[in-house]
Amino acid sequence: xxxxxxxxGHIQATxxxxxxxxxxxxxxxxxxxQEAAKHEHILEVAPALPLLRKHTAEDLKVRGLCRDRVxxxxxxxxxxxxxxxxxxxxxxxxxxxxxxxxxxAGAWHDVRADDLNAYLRERTDTDLTAxxxxxxxxxxxxxxxxxxxxxxxxxxxxxxxxxxxxxAVSARCTHLGCIVAFNSAEQAxxxxxxxxxxxxxxxxxxxxxxxxxxxxxM
Length: 218
Ligand code: FES
Hints:
This protein is of the alpha+beta class.
């Protein structure tokens, strides 16, 4: 075990867990910066996803198990959210076999993570990598779980709770009509104008609003 002598060191401590894996404890500020950088990166590469889908659809139509078709299949799995399963397949080593391989120049070639990343870069002309899909799917899930959406010409504040139940209420604050935004740390809809706060089901947590957010059908 090693403990950083500096209070602001980016790694605060390292050690080995019971399974023999090396563990690192990072400074919370450093983790925040890393997370922010990941999300900035996703904003840069996400616009290339439609192009990737177009290319993978074309590559999947090719006959045989050539490089592009097999890599397109792996990319499609990533895009559909099967990252963990794909990672397990790419890492399969115990009996020397891998489930992803392509046929080229009279021989089978195992697909490795580097091949997949090269394919993602080639097809999108960005530095999109397999790891980015984790951040992308987390972002999509968060957007689906809590969002302000326009439906029937009105703004709805939609939140999916931990039991999977969807709560849809008007996104318009009942004080003076500003649009609320979700604060995930507080699990509340908050009004940026004068500070009213509402529970996910619209009940008032804090004024000046005196009426709850109206329920909406989704
Ligand atoms: S408009 Fe929301 S608190 Fe005033």
